């Protein structure tokens, strides 16, 4: 017996030691790729020394004597912080465009892309020397046996991929199309039924100086897209000898896409382009023009100068906005024509309500979570129900009282999509049930048409626009059903679903219980258990039509799961008193073991923006690291401590 006990004991100890050694080895391999922001490097390809000061949020402030060295350094830090994301973006872009045309780029852009590629490759060379865990944790388990050198063509393809992501989903290659679904002959065609959302959307709005507290214009920018770890956006301050450019960059592209220099701030709006105008997406020429425009924006002297550049180079489907200390300018000069959305309606309401704006007021507008969809559809849906009882499809004798309580709640609700309130959950569950009731008989196999709420279509039907109420009739039944009947039955469907899921007490229902953010780590190749372990989940306010945008998912059992939404926001003013503020949902690093992996997430949830400055003396306070890149043949001293713009 004692012998058996000893065998079991030693076996258990051996297992523990093996697990400990294995865990230690895995941790060592993973932690080896966490960048040290105080490490200096000697690299080939630089013309002179470069200082990289990372502030308290790990945003790099890059200082160099030449533009080529600045672009080299942004390539270096993109690879240092986001190597896995860089390779994933390249793989995706190559899948869409295996090769690019050889273009005669503007010299400044060509040189910038070449310097950027050299910076990325300098980091790849350091990784290949060993001791850095292949540069990114996912590379330890991915099928990337070797990493090809970065080329300027890779950056051009990624720019094309970004522009292509602004197109509606039905227009992108490889996307399932629902526009080919056959509409029954007895149904009026409603164009909104087949509308699809782009992967990314750019929004921006500007306020003239006569309506701001400082007397200088304010520019607010909002980008929506995938909410993933790491974020699609990377904040950076590029300190050129001609002046700084600060804002949001895409790993893979060296230019600031939304941001400002010392004199001008710029942002974009995107809107759908008909398929016939761009059947295969943006051409290499358009992508090159877009990059040239961004390079010139960073050197613009004023808003008029920037918009003059946009007039020649802005891609179709985009509108450019720029401000300086006195002027708000846009191209096209007349606001681009696009259908007014529910978000546009809410923005117009908030702009009309407030006569004078501060940057804090603009931030409040960006983070607004009152839904114009709820304020528009709810009166149409409930107008016949406030005093009419529905049929009792919920088990129990208290169904009528429950229904009445919930209708009373909705009657006094202002449309605020608060994560801790039950009203948003009841409203969207009702909308979803109504759409299924209306569309399932016409499109029994096109599930995505009747499971994902489409408020534009429902508004057309419920308001009987040009006879659209015919959609409420069930084609397979003899009687002709009305929209009022469908709304009533859909309410019972929704209540039944909610009672089964959460019980009969509405005070325990919350929007955030269903409307949860699921921000997953995005590896280079397939997802797995590690992705689930590294994800971030939290209840979140808003909906796909609030100014703070949070999209719905596609899972049948979790219809309101959030994996996309507002993933970068900025409020900018060329005014020392107002300043510029930015926020993205995660941290700067793409490494799960870095403290800057998700450090911005709590601030993003609470709507607390980063005050970003190009003054290095301010960035140095609480800095997370200062490193230097030195040319392989150079021995120059560090730049002075007080250097700023």
TrEMBL record:
Gene3D superfamilies: 1.10.1400.10, Glutamine Phosphoribosylpyrophosphate, subunit 1, domain 1, Penicillin Amidohydrolase, domain 1. Keywords: Membrane, Transmembrane, Transmembrane helix. Pfam families: Penicil_amidase (PF01804). The chain crosses the membrane at residues 7-30. InterPro entries: Ntn_hydrolases_N, Pen/GL7ACA/AHL_acylase, Penicillin_amidase_A-knob, Penicillin_amidase_dom1, S45. It comes from the Bacteria. SUPFAM superfamilies: N-terminal nucleophile aminohydrolases (Ntn hydrolases). Belongs to the peptidase S45 family. This is Penicillin acylase family protein.
């Amino acid at each position: 017996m004692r012998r058996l006990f000893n065998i079991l004991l030693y076996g258990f100890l051996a297992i523990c030691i093996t697990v400990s050694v294995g865990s230690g080895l895995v941790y060592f391999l993973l932690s080896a790729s966490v960048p040290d922001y105080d490490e200096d490097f000697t690299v080939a390809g630089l013309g002179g020394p470069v200082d990289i000061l990372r502030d308290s949020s790990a945003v790099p402030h890059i200082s160099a004597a030449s533009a080529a060295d600045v672009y080299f350094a942004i390539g270096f830090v993109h690879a240092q912080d986001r190597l896995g994301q860089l390779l994933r973006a390249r793989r995706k872009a190559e899948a869409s465009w295996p090769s690019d045309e050889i273009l005669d780029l503007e010299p400044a852009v060509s040189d910038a892309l070449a310097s950027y590629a050299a910076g990325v490759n300098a980091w790849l060379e350091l990784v290949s020397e060993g001791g850095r865990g292949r540069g990114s944790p996912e590379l330890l388990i991915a099928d990337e046996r070797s990493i090809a050198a970065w080329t300027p063509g890779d950056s051009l393809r990624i720019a094309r991929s970004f522009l292509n992501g602004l197109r509606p989903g039905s227009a992108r290659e490889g996307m399932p199309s629902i526009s080919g679904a056959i509409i029954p002959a007895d149904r009026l065609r409603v164009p909104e039924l087949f509308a699809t959302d782009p992967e990314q959307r750019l929004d921006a709005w500007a306020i003239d100086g006569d309506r701001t507290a400082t007397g200088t214009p304010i520019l607010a920018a909002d980008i929506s897209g995938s909410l993933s770890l790491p974020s699609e956006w990377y904040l950076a301050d590029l300190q050129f000898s001609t002046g700084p450019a600060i804002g949001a960059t895409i790993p893979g592209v060296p230019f600031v896409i939304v941001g400002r220099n010392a004199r001008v701030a710029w942002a974009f709006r995107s809107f759908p382009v008909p398929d016939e105008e761009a059947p295969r997406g943006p051409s290499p020429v358009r992508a090159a023009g877009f990059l040239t425009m961004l390079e010139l924006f960073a050197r613009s002297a004023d808003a008029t100068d920037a918009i003059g550049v946009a007039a020649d180079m802005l891609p179709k489907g985009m509108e450019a906005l720029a401000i300086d200390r006195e002027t708000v300018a846009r191209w096209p000069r007349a606001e681009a024509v696009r259908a007014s959305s529910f978000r546009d309606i809410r923005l117009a309401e908030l702009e009309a309500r407030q006569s004078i704006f501060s940057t804090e007021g603009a931030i409040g507008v960006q983070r607004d979570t009152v839904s114009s969809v709820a304020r528009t559809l709810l009166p149409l849906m409930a107008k016949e129900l406030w005093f009419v009882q529905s049929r009792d499809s919920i088990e129990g004798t208290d169904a009528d009282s429950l229904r009445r309580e919930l209708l009373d709640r909705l009657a006094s609700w202002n449309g605020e999509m608060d994560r801790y309130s039950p009203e948003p959950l009841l409203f969207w569950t009702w909308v979803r049930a109504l759409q299924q009731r209306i569309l399932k008989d016409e499109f029994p196999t096109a599930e995505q048409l009747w499971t994902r709420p489409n408020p534009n279509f429902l508004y057309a039907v419920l308001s009987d626009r040009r006879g659209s109420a015919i959609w409420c009739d069930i084609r397979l039944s003899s009687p002709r059903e009305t929209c009022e009947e469908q709304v009533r039955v859909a309410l019972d469907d929704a209540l039944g679903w909610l009672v089964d899921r959460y019980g009969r007490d509405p005070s325990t229902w919350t929007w955030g219980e269903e409307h949860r953010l699921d921000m997953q780590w995005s590896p280079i190749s397939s997802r797995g258990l590690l992705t689930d372990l590294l994800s971030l989940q939290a209840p979140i306010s808003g909906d796909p039509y609030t100014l703070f945008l949070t999209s719905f998912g596609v899972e049948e059992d979790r219809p309101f799961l959030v994996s996309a939404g507002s993933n970068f926001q900025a409020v900018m003013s060329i005014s020392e008193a107002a300043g510029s503020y930015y926020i993205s949902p995660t941290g700067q690093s793409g490494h799960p073991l870095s403290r800057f992996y998700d450090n911005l997430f709590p601030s993003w949830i609470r709507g607390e923006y980063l005050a970003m400055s190009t003054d290095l003396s301010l960035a140095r306070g609480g800095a997370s690291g200062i490193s230097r890149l030195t040319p392989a043949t150079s021995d120059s001293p560090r730049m002075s401590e007080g250097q700023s713009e």
